[in-house]
Amino acid sequence: MAAALANDSPKYRNSLICCSPRSAEVASRTASSSSTSGCVSADESYDSSCVPKSITNKKLKIHSSATREEIEKAIKQCKELVLNSPQCSDERKWLVRYLVELRLRLEDLKDNDGQPRGKVAIKGHHFEQQVSPSNRKQYCDHCSGVIWSIVQCSYICTDCGYICHFKCVDDICRVCAHVVMTEKGQFEMSICPEKGLSAQDYKCAECNTALTFKDSWNEPRLCDYTGLYFCATCHWNDLSPIPARVVHNWDWEKRYISRIAYQMLTLSWSRPYIDVENINFRLFSFIAELEWVHKMRKDLEWMRRYLCACAEGNSLLSPLFIQLGDVNKKYSMSHLQAINDGTLESQLTELTEICRSHITSCELCSGKGYLCEVCSNNEILYPFDSGAIMCEKCNSMYHRGCWLRKGQTCLKCLRIEERKKAGNLQSDGIDSHLEYDIDKFVQ
To answer: Is this structure's pTM higher than 0.70?
Structure first.
């Protein structure tokens, strides 16, 4: 059984060795021989929720919040049923396994005077007892052992999703990933900043377990996100794209990362932490989809000024609009992944068309448009029009053709310069931080 658990545990996933030769030999010998006590062999699959039909009428199942007295009563009843059941039958196999699980549950309750703690706060984690755990198999983030949810109490952090046994909650050494990312406020933007095992004193970066390449049970595992080495308990060979490799090389290949890095990336996957324009502005030249999305984000920033001043336009401010129409121009990993998949481009195109249609048809929004300073026709120009250009000094608008025809010279700026020379303006010069005209309408 120990060999089967070792092979199934994430601690030994993709490891060079799964169990010692002696334990493997014992497991094979146990599997080949039948047990007189009715135990299940190591290679048999088992689910304690599948009660044999012959004992379904006996009320042995207990609630996850059962008290110590209720569990002791269930253990006594289960022992009597084991003695009265046929030898090597499916009924006895189920009862023996369930008896072991009940005793494990009882030991958990004894550690806390019969009452499990409902909430625990330690190292930034906010643990709550799992009342209805998921159907999938869970593993403890501290000891990497299987959590038998039917009989064992377990805790889950409501912030980062850290899961551990009841008996392991006081011994955890990992700080909550939510606290780490909230304090840092950004991803690691260096590609695998490895310093070597000597810089870590040949110890695990999390639990300080001694690491060596001579022992396959405790081989060091490199985290591609942090560049640190971890033991097999703290590094389960989880795979994830690395933000630094995406921003610098547009490399979406998944690489092995530690548990703390996996939780940090999972929590921050949708948070806008990446300023592509400052970190690697050349990426826009190589990724056409990214450049197109970046242009549409600038258009959304202008549209937001119009929609915020319009009662009907506020209904168009969807969560996607609020995220990508922000002035900080940062991206999240989910945004970059959607750009790589091609889904974000189509969503933004549809969103900008809806907003453009409202602004051009709404009397309040269209009344805040511009007229060309050169041709002065009745066509209303907007800052987000592809066929228009805005002067960076005085915010006046021109058709691109008119702007080129006038030698890229702003007529309004020339008039201001003439009035300045005539003494009509007493200021030292044109204020380069003038408000945009549309901003005057936004409270």
So the answer is: no
